[in-house]
Amino acid sequence: MANKRMQPEHARLMSVGERGELPQHEEFTPELQARRRARADKPFYAHSVYFNTQAPKDGIRHFVDGIGDVNPLFRDGEYARKTKYGSIIAPGCYLYTIQWMVPGIGGTGIHGWYSGGGWEWYRPIFAGDEFTVVSVIRELVERKGKMGGGRTWIDYSEPIYINQRGEIVGKEKGWAVIAERQASGSAGKYLATPKPVYAREDWVKILELYEKEELRGAEPRYWEDVEIGDKLGPMIKGPLSVRDEIAWLMGAGSPFFRAHKIEYDWERRHPRGLEYVKDTGEADVPELVHVFDAFAREIGVQRAYDYGSQRMSWLGQLFANWIGDDGFLWKMRGDLRVFNQMGDITTFEGRVTEKYIEEGKCCVDIEAWAKNQRDEWSMRPNPATVILPSREYGPVVYPNPAPKLMEEVKSARPLDELLREGSI
User: Fold this and answer.
1) pTM over 0.85, yes/no
2) CB of 288 within 8 A of CB of 307?
3) Spatial CB neighbours of 13, under 8 Å, sequence gap ≥ 6
4) How far is residue 112's CA from residue 175's CA, in Å, rounded to a whole number?
5) What's the rounded Cα separation, in Å, for the pair 341 and 374?
6) 107 domain-assigned
7) Which domain does 30 fall in, by range?
8) Pick from 344, 346, 318, 353: which is nearest to 332 by CA?
């Protein structure tokens, strides 16, 4: 009896033709675009698990280890018991480990770059919390961009995170730039980026910035003490290395990295899902652009680069360090620009732009950004809102999600049901 796993449709058999040629990358055809748009605005419960379904204290520690965050609120049980929470909590971006983006965006063989998002959080994440996710695919917008050789799209989606108490903890409307791999590689917008070299005096400055990193911690930052124009940072990350990427993956999980039988079974179900690298003759998961330069060059980037969710989590750390244990990060928007390639440094800064009281919440608006060592925008200035304790009005009042968001959560259905009826 023939072995079904040896049929030629398997990705590993497709990758080697009679003359050792690799398959061509696919195009994002009008039919694929129409299929993607037909899935929009239909809330569903996904049946796949990204990485975590809960927030155990070890998982939280692994996550903050992966972003270089030493805040004891996220890792030291004895310290955390003395705070208002009474236990370890997780930074808001820990939710990336539950679900990063929404399954079903993009297309087979089409490369996607997570390029930013607008977060809102409504409740703290406590050690031991468990989560379900309502996923909503949003709009697909065609753009003209050099990265995709003139053919790029912005793909929007929105995961909504609900804890075991039925509370909506947070949500992110994220966006990914998607492009055809062949067009991206031939465009080569980022192939001329020089590799940075740091002298001894450069390393002295880098290490000094790490040493001076602000961590407010147990000392409350009261709303009354904040002034418009107050500065946040600088906070440094890098020079980026493969070691940093592996540490991130150990804490945040991976969209694609699987092992042995699990990997090859996935490839059999998704035979066009691999990235084919002409320089090496290799075929493997596209996520290797974050580890190996050859995979990055195939899509037009000179060296391996960071994860967008990783950079967003660094931004979240900037705010958490500044607000202290008693503050709360309510809203955060990040817009990723240039690729953060191996060897690059990212420096985060911000400034207070407004302070006000809204429905009992003592709010502070902040504009924050990041630049690399070439003085390029790694993240352009974008707004965030934090809620601080007040001497006059008391502790933080948590925000509530919008009624429309709550209605979408109530209307969500299992993905399998929507697939069976052909509505998604």
Assistant:
1) yes
2) no
3) 6, 7
4) 10
5) 12
6) yes
7) 26-191+198-420
8) 318
